[in-house]
Amino acid sequence: MPRLHTACTFWTVEDQAGKAIVIVDDEMSFTDLLGRLLGEHFQCPILTFSNPVTALETIPLLDIGMLVTDYYMPHLNGIELIRGAIARSAIAPPCVLITGHALDEDSDIARMACFKGILAKPFRWQQLASLIEQHWPADAPSPLRPGAVSLHR
């Protein structure tokens, strides 16, 4: 089940209001920390998954403003997850790949319109927040919390 990083304790897909940031990484402690840090900056729902297969099954039910996924995960890597999300969604969400492994930005995934960048681990959460702000769908309300300072330069 996805974890929602807001004041809400229990969450179902029906509870989602507005576009969400979806984070997928098999390291649950990493997704929890990243979700909490981003949750202090953004007011939109932030959903974290530690299982990429569960994430892929849930993606068609979500209104995604940004998909952030690790590359190297068991059962399904980040590129397979992004391709699966595109195949299951009417509109491909903007995507960022995070990885501790060297990847070629000239790969097939980098040429996809929804692909917005690769962040090499370790990275500062502000770098990811800036990418989210920069590529947030124009037709959606700003994800920033009231009074939050934009990190996009």
TrEMBL record:
Pfam family, any one: Response_reg
4-aspartylphosphate, modified sites: 70
Domain of life: Bacteria
Keywords: Phosphoprotein
Swiss-Prot/TrEMBL GO biological process terms: phosphorelay signal transduction system
Domain Response regulatory: 20-136
UniProt name for this protein: Response regulator
